[in-house]
Design a protein that fits this description.
This protein has 20 helices and eleven strands. The protein is an alpha/beta fold. Helix 3 packs across helix 9. The structure holds coenzyme A. Coenzyme A binds next to helix 3, strand 2, helix 6 and strand 5.
């Protein structure tokens, strides 16, 4: 017996020795691995570029967004590989599904072009069972994104405190019209933000009213800002282990994009803005940054000029920039070589009061060619020009298709449509541009596969009315 015990002890000792040897064996390797990757991050993948998954693989987004600003953000995250679960009201969905419809009875392009690569689940967030499902989703997801009117999320019971208690790692990201302050309770749409963010007062012609721009800098612009906030919060969570609130106010987002105009506001205190054509025209400046028409926002004067065919084609124009280093080449091209040495034209300050004459002269030359011919000719001399491309030309542009910036997807209801793919290209992360989901298309799948509900649970949920539209009241019997 004693010998057996001795033998067992000896065996245990040798196992312990072996295992400690194993540990010792591994020890020197660990610091080496850390040093190789820096900061203890994983070693570089040995998989070929583009085959190590997508940038946001594994990130789950509880997408409570609607209309444009929030959906822009979550669509980008979906393109980057996140699993975006869009929660919509049963029977109704995102209001844009039915707005600006071009195909009867089908989801509009407004909706389909902002909700690609997502999954859709219908949940009545005010139904007790719906609240229970949402709580489960909160526990399962990494980020909740919303752009409801101020207070709406709280009214659903989804306060930050509640969410944080259920899932301390969750990031709660919101778009609101205004940040904290006098207007924080206001509902806001695109053009409200363009006006409140300083864009409209600085857009348009001096003699005319303020103008909004076609680019959706209030909605899509703020959605972009929010996406950066979310990815930053996800990155910080790697260190802190906890989520946080991310807020992007549309007014702030627009101002961020219009910051050069706040720059000019401050420059005004030190004298007139010499690069604005009103300076050359001798028109006095007021107290605020004025509208500058098509003046270039930087130090290189520019203007939009007519090209061949402008009489019939509203987009036969080109943006022409008289960049100082290529002034000599411009003079030669337009047949004014003498301007290179003429004191009135040879230097940028001398040209400022004569910009109207200069652009009129250049226009006489651009009108002899199509905008594409002007572009070809100018680019040979490094002269920056921008053809005014119509949306038709952009839709037909094959190079944009080739890069995945414009993508054709197939929809079971409406057929093929074009959408804007991911404008951000990552060399190791393939793009994921898929059609938008039908209303509630993935409800069953998400309940079972993401939330783990059984057949019996799903049947009960269906009966509860939490995922289906409320019954329409029965028609009164005919008398
Ligand atoms: N189940 C039940 N109710 C739901 C629901 C669901 N799945 N999804 C939304 N709702 C409810 C909300 O709880 C809210 O109800 P409540 O006001 O009774 O609490 C209601 O739908 C409407 O939400 P709201 O955001 O007020 O929509 P709206 O159509 O009145 O306003 C905006 C639209 C865009 C003006 C507003 O949402 C807003 O200002 N958002 C912030 C700024 C923004 O993103 N603007 C740009 C949009 S592109």
């Amino acid at each position: 017996m004693a010998t057996r015990k001795k033998a067992a002890k000896a065996k245990a000792k040798s196992v312990a020795k072996k295992s400690s040897r194993k540990v010792l064996k591994f020890k020197p390797k660990r610091p080496a691995a850390k040093a190789a990757s820096g900061n203890g991050l994983p070693r570089p993948s040995s998989k070929p570029w583009g085959q190590a998954g997508r940038a946001l693989d594994g990130v789950k987004i509880l997408d409570f967004t609607h209309v444009q600003s929030g959906p822009t953000c979550t669509q980008l995250l979906a393109y980057m590989g996140a699993d975006v679960i869009k929660v919509e009201r049963p029977g109704v969905g995102d209001i844009t599904r039915g707005q600006l419809r071009d195909v009867k009875g089908q989801d509009s392009l407004y909706f389909t072009m902002l909700n690609g690569s997502k999954r859709s689940i219908t949940i009545d967030s005010k139904h007790p069972k719906g609240k229970e499902i949402l709580d489960r989703l909160v526990k399962q997801c990494d980020v909740l994104v919303e752009n409801f009117a101020p207070g709406a999320l709280d009214r659903m019971g989804l306060t930050f405190e509640h969410i944080n208690k259920l899932n301390p790692r969750m990031i709660v990201a919101s778009v609101k019209g205004f940040g904290p302050g006098p207007y924080e309770d206001c509902k806001v749409y695109e053009n409200v933000a363009q006006c409140a963010g300083g864009s409209a007062s600085t857009t348009g012609f001096r003699e005319g009213p303020p103008l909004v721009t076609g680019a959706q800098i209030g909605d899509s612009g703020t959605g972009l800002h929010l996406a950066l906030g979310i990815v930053s919060a996800l990155f910080q969570r790697l260190r802190t282990g906890r989520g946080q609130k991310v807020l992007c106010a549309m007014q702030d987002g627009v101002l961020n994009l219009a910051r050069v105009k706040l720059r000019d506001q401050q420059r005004l205190a030190h004298g007139p803005l010499s690069e604005y054509s009103q300076f050359g025209e001798g028109v006095a400046f007021g107290k605020a940054t004025p509208r500058a028409g098509n003046d270039s926002g930087g130090g290189q004067p520019g203007w939009i000029l007519k090209c061949k065919g402008w009489e019939n084609d509203p987009d036969a124009y080109i943006y022409f920039i008289t960049q100082a280093p290529v002034w000599g080449a411009i003079c030669d091209l337009i047949g004014k070589p003498e301007w290179k040495t003429d004191a009135d034209f040879a230097t940028p300050p001398a040209r400022l009061p004569r910009l109207r004459l200069i652009f009129d002269t250049i226009e006489q030359w651009t009108m002899t060619m199509t905008k594409f011919e002007v572009m070809d000719t100018c680019n040979k001399h490094d002269i920056p020009v921008g053809p005014i491309l119509s949306m038709k030309e952009i839709a037909d542009e094959q190079s944009l298709r080739a890069t995945g910036t414009v993508v054709e997807v197939d929809h079971p209801g409406r057929g093929k449509y074009l959408t804007v793919g991911n404008p951000i290209k990552l060399s190791d992360s393939p793009q994921d541009v898929r059609r938008s989901p039908l209303l509630g298309e993935h409800t069953d799948e998400i309940l079972r596969k993401v939330l783990g509900y059984s057949d019996k649970d799903v049947a009960e949920i269906k009966m509860s009315g939490a995922i289906t539209p409320p019954e329409k009241p029965a028609k009164a019997e005919a008398a």
